[in-house]
From TrEMBL, chain B:
The lineage of its organism: Bacteria, Bacillati, Actinomycetota, Actinomycetes, Propionibacteriales. SUPFAM superfamilies: ADC-like, Formate dehydrogenase/DMSO reductase, domains 1-3. GO terms for molecular function: 4 iron, 4 sulfur cluster binding; metal ion binding; molybdopterin cofactor binding; NADH dehydrogenase activity. Pfam families: Molybdop_Fe4S4 (PF04879), Molybdopterin (PF00384), Molydop_binding (PF01568). The keyword Chaperone does not apply. PANTHER family: NADH-QUINONE OXIDOREDUCTASE SUBUNIT G, RESPIRATORY NITRATE REDUCTASE. This is Nitrite reductase.
Length: 467, 678
């Protein structure tokens, strides 16, 4: 058990999601002597939230999402308080007040409370008791995912409200499960937070081809027995409504405690609240330089930096490069940075016929943002260039987007080495009458055997055209 | 007519030597490892016989002129023995170091270790095998409790369903082995190659995966994550034959395909394809080689791939499992008999009291007289000439000026020595810096056993008389030992018998092997504890070598290469071999029939265009440690963010990073940050 002494620093982490888990892992790795307590409102171990759609689709076992089981926390002397809500922060008393009224004292407090799904203004989503209508589902937590999975056997049709990343992932997962899916998106194209209209329309075409209808510029106004009623008068008959209309940083605790909250809990480059040097925030609930992220890589970057700061290292958070990947069968999307807003020169290749649209934003030779839809053949390399800030040559961004040209078949020159193992030239093999003859007199093909086809070809050519 | 084996790589292809004066290589079709096949290095192996650059007289550097002059063997050995004694008397036993090689026969490796511990009393003995397969060795010891590169005959891979080659270019580095890939295909199997370059081996793959250098570990984590998520783990096998899987399972959730893609540069889609292939196969074999192992994270990288093989339930089952394709001719045997800083013969650990007692009894000395663990190869070289490091070094079968990482630094350390003694066949770059050069026999001129990559102990028989003026390494060591007051055996048959006794009861037990059996059985697989024991072609069939009989999973984390590209050095540099050359090239570069075109710099057309270079233009590669100027070879088969330089010439290792793996002490030959310009 770590900690215990009177002079040991007490660290309380509110939230038990991916940012919180990473923070604790990093603290443990740094050999922290803090007495660490993690309070999470979800029961069970922390899990990898971004793979929920893979569980919904059926490609991932639920157990494979577990980040750290309870035994790991115990083994590293970290106290885990699961299934417990935090009701209040008592900053003056430096205590966290739990739902049962008990109090946890802290020397440092980390808010990693994540985000809550936003409900669109649509009548009939919520029942009188405040719970979601039985046909309506959110998709943020493992509990949401399980509830949706339970509803699947009886469901034939589904409406996904929201055409963003999560919406498309859920739509594809449900399709793979055999449910007929329709997507309702209020904006004028799909994935509008990440890509431009042209890329969005390529994506829409692909989705339509996969059997999912998309309604753009449409809002659901109410849910009735007949289905989802859109503002354009359409009624989408459905058994399920999945709400993926984005999330809002879970910042109410901080707000009530008098900390500065705009969209999220405001933090500086030290990931610390400007109002209280003992309070920190990381992950989806945090707002840094006016930005909230909603993605794992920045959350982990913040967790890592805060862990090092708490361990006494002088490091700062200056924003993270984000690479967003859509995880959905048969829909290929990668978004590097913010291609719609990042200034720079644009290199773009669109092929709606083949279902692809690729765009690079280049500034001073570097790929500073990109969106790739329908063709991820260079995603690995582009991500490396993006992450490492590689300075490319003037022709390189264009070359990266062009397919490899098939090499024209060429005659093998006489001095070319055909068999590397034995060091035999094409001329020597051409002088042989049969493959066996070539093997015996030149040893071509007797080493690794990789030249067998070429030898056969050269000998055959010789036979047809005697020299 | 003499049946023997090629002098080069770990395949140890069988060959027949004909003739007394002009030796000729002929095929030996009955020997199963190569079935009569050889590559051009093997066919031309006799090229050093009678070569004008062959050393035939001991040479001593004249203190006044700095020139080497020929002396008699007695004069040379007297001089070396006197100097070693004086240095030892003045500075202690550890002031003398010994450096061996993975190309030495078992008898030489054994005698070298004994010479260091018994004659010199020094702990400072290690060898260039640290730069070969040491990461795979460390990993196999951790996972299986025993390290035999391949725990099965190489030909077994023809009968697996999916073969995964991680960082192996066997079609170029051991060409006769490539026929197994063709036969595997004929049998309906699938080949996966993981390499930053699309090598001739990758050309034969059904699935080619091209990760960023230094990220094979993350790739393996991603593979295991997907396999576990898809329910492909063999739970029965894991429960019955392994331990530690729960902890590994708990460490995988953070390695989803898209994160792996960002780290490795391998598209998530391809990772999924690989995992589908693995999940649907009954038999999977994973083989690693230097590409995966020569990293500061080499041990963990191999462990990550072993985890994959174990989770699929493959290790110790027919035609499946994990193996390492060892590199040097006696890379396997060379690490088993005591030239390694922490080991005694029979793969015994030097800090194990029982091991010390057994070996001391065979050697007729007190266990307490044996020194403890010494420095690893790279650390040993780094310590040369320093206040607490060796002041004299004896080098056998190695050319570290070419083969060590950060070689410029190594040359500086060698220069700081009071005495450098090098035994070699030719004037290697290291020999050229020596105070005393001792000319020794080459392979066809002496007899000895080797242990190939399969753990098969084979016999190289003497085919011809050595040139006048040349002695074998064994005679050299015995001659020095005699002058230092200890009698050492120099007859290879007698040494092998003694080695058998010293190894008896150890992990690599040779006690039941003799020359007659090796001849009759086309080699004998260790462990072979008794004359009536059949040898062990396949290991781990019932149990692993840990006390509880189980294989161990290890939790490993991706750390990445020690040196990451940055603005000044924006590229990855990796190194490797070409077909026509071998290791530091001391032998092959002198053989007329093998093209010696010098080093080159392989780069992608994107990168060539970026710096304005054309194929054949000279380009300059720089790293924090050195620079190399060589012609560009512009190829589409390499990653556009990566450079490749072959390491057979002085140059490549002026560039490489000597950051070490914490367990195996393997330097990071295969990844460092570099820049290139015209």
């Amino acid at each position: 058990m770590r900690g215990g002494g009177a002079d040991v620093r007490r660290l309380v982490v509110v939230g038990h999601g991916m940012a919180a888990t990473r923070l604790v892992e990093e603290l443990v790795a740094l050999g922290s002597s803090d007495e660490i307590t993690v309070v999470g409102d979800e029961p069970g171990p922390a899990y990898n939230r971004i793979l929920l759609s893979a569980v919904l689709e059926g490609s991932h076992a639920e157990e494979a999402l577990t980040l750290r089981d309870t035994g790991w926390y115990a083994g590293h002397g970290v106290r885990l308080v699961g299934g417990t809500r935090v009701d209040e922060l008592d900053r003056a008393g430096r205590q966290v007040v739990l739902a049962d009224g008990s109090r946890l004292p802290y020397d440092h407090l980390v808010l990693a409370t994540g985000a809550n799904p936003t409900l669109p203004p649509m009548r009939g989503l919520v029942r009188r008791d405040g719970r979601l209508h039985e046909r309506v589902h959110a998709f943020r937590s493992l509990a949401d995912c399980r509830r949706l999975l339970e509803a699947l056997p009886a469901a034939r049709r589904a409406v996904v409200v929201g055409g963003g990343l999560l919406g498309l992932q859920v739509a594809r997962a449900l399709s793979v499960r055999g449910v007929l899916v329709e997507v309702v998106e209020g904006g004028d194209h799909l994935l509008r937070s990440q890509v431009g209209p042209r890329a969005g329309s390529v994506l829409q075409r692909s989705l339509t081809r996969l059997g999912t209808a998309v309604y753009l510029g449409a809002r659901g106004v109410r849910l009735t027995e007949a289905g989802v009623v859109l503002d354009n008068g359409y009624v989408l008959e459905t058994d399920l409504v999945v709400i993926t209309a984005g999330g809002r940083p879970a910042a109410s605790l901080a707000r009530r405690a008098g900390l500065t909250v705009r969209r999220g809990v405001v933090v500086d480059d030290h990931l610390t609240s400007p109002d209280d040097p003992r309070v920190h925030a990381i992950g989806d609930c945090a707002e840094h330089e006016g930005r909230v992220s909603g993605f794992v890589p920045p959350a982990w970057e913040q967790a890592s930096i805060l862990a090092r700061r708490l361990a006494g290292h002088d490091v700062c958070y200056s924003g993270a490069r984000s690479v967003v990947r859509l995880r959905a069968s048969d829909l290929d999307v990668a978004v590097l940075g913010d291609p719609e807003h990042e200034p720079g020169e644009v290199v773009e290749i669109a092929n709606p016929v083949a279902g692809s649209h690729r765009k690079l934003v280049v500034r001073e030779g570097r790929v500073v943002a990109a969106s790739l839809v329908g063709d991820l053949s260079q995603v690995g390399l582009l991500t490396q260039h993006f992450d490492r800030g590689t300075v490319l040559g003037p022709r390189e961004p264009g070359s990266l987007l062009l397919p490899d040209r098939p090499a024209a078949p060429r005659a093998i020159p006489d001095d070319a080495e055909v068999c590397a193992c034995a060091g035999v030239s094409a001329a020597r093999i051409r002088s042989c009458r049969t493959v066996e003859d070539a093997r015996r007199t030149t040893r071509a093909g007797t080493g690794c055997g990789g030249c067998a086809d070429v030898v056969r070809q050269l000998v055959a050519t010789t036979e047809r055209h005697p020299v | 007519m003499t049946h023997t084996h090629c002098p080069y790589c770990s395949l140890q292809c069988g060959m027949v030597l004909e003739g007394r004066r002009a030796l000729e290589v002929q095929a030996w079709p009955e020997f199963p490892v190569n079935e009569g096949r050889l590559c051009r290095k093997g066919w031309t192996a006799t090229g050093l016989r009678g070569h004008r650059e062959r050393l035939t007289s001991p040479l001593v550097r004249d203190r006044d002129t700095g020139e080497l002059r020929a002396v008699s063997w007695d004069e040379a050995l007297d001089l070396v023995a006197d100097r070693l004694s004086a240095i030892r008397d003045e500075h202690g036993a550890d002031a003398v170091g010994v450096f061996g090689g993975g190309g030495l026969t078992n008898e030489k490796a054994y005698t070298l270790g004994k010479f260091a511990r018994v004659v010199l009393g020094t702990s400072q003995v290690d060898y260039n095998g640290r730069w070969c397969m040491s990461s795979a060795a460390s990993a196999a010891n951790l996972a299986f409790g025993l390290d035999r590169g391949l725990p099965f005959p190489l030909a077994d891979i023809e009968h697996t369903d999916v073969l995964v080659l991680v960082g192996s270019n066997l079609a170029e580095t051991m060409p006769p082995a490539a026929r197994h890939l063709d036969r595997l295909h004929e049998n309906g199997g699938t080949v996966v190659v993981v390499d930053p370059r699309r090598t001739p081996t990758a050309e034969r793959a059904d699935l080619f995966v091209q990760p960023v250098p230094g990220t094979d570990l993350a790739l393996a984590l991603g593979v295991l994550h997907l396999l576990d998520a898809a329910g492909a783990v063999d739970e029965d096998y894991v429960a019955e034959r392994t331990s530690g899987f729960a902890e590994v399972r708990g460490s995988l959730a953070a390695w989803w395909p898209e994160r792996v893609e960002r780290v490795t540069g391998v598209a998530a889609e391809q990772l999924r394809a690989l995992c589908e292939l693995l999940a649907s196969a009954d038999k999977v074999t994973v083989l690693t080689a230097r590409g995966a192992e020569q990293h500061s994270t080499g041990t963990d990288t191999v462990l990550a791939w072993i985890n994959v093989a174990l989770a699929l339930g493959m290790c110790g089952t027919p035609y499946a499992g994990y193996g390492c394709l060892t590199g040097q001719g006696n890379g396997q045997g060379g690490r088993e008999h005591g030239q390694k800083a922490d080991q005694l013969p029979g793969y015994r650990m030097i800090d194990d009291p029982q091991a010390r007692e057994h070996v001391a009894r065979v050697w007729g000395v007190e266990p307490g007289s044996l020194p403890g663990k010494g420095r690893s190869a790279t650390e040993l070289l780094d310590a040369l000439g320093r206040p607490d490091g060796p002041r004299a070094l004896l080098v056998l079968g190695s050319n570290p000026v070419v083969s060590a990482p950060n070689a410029h630094h190594v040359a500086e350390r060698l220069a700081a020595l009071d005495l450098l003694v090098v035994a070699d066949v030719v004037m290697s770059e290291t020999a050229a810096r020596a105070d005393v050069v001792l000319p020794v026999t080459q392979w066809a001129e002496e007899t000895g056993t080797m242990t190939n990559l399969e753990g098969r102990v084979i016999l190289r028989e003497q085919a011809v008389e050595p040139p006048a003026g040349v002695r074998s390494d064994l005679e050299l060591l015995a001659g020095l030992a005699e002058r230092l007051g200890v009698r050492l055996e120099s007859d290879p048959v007698a040494v092998f018998a003694e080695l058998g006794r010293a190894s008896a009861g150890g992990r690599a037990d040779y006690a039941g092997i003799d020359h007659a059996r090796i001849r009759a059985e086309h080699g004998v697989f260790w462990p072979c504890p008794a004359p009536d024991h059949p040898g062990t072609p396949r290991m781990f069939t019932d149990r692993f070598a840990h006390e509880d009989g189980r294989a161990r999973f290890s939790v490993v984390e991706h750390r990445g290469a020690d040196e990451q590209p940055d603005a000044a050095y924006p590229l990855h540099l990796t190194t490797g071999r070409v077909l026509a050359q071998y290791q530091s090239g001391a032998q092959t570069r002198r053989i007329a029939e093998l093209a010696d075109d010098g080093p080159f710099v392989e780069l992608h057309p994107f990168l060539a265009d970026r710096i304005g270079a054309h194929d054949g233009d000279p380009v300059v590669v720089t790293t924090r440690r050195g620079q190399l100027r060589a012609p560009a070879r512009v190829v589409t088969t390499i990653r556009p963010d990566t450079l490749f330089v072959p390491f057979h010439w002085v140059g490549a290792n002026l560039l490489t990073n000597d950051a070490l793996d914490p367990t195996s002490r393997m330097p990071e030959f295969k990844a460092c940050a570099a820049a290139v310009r015209t």
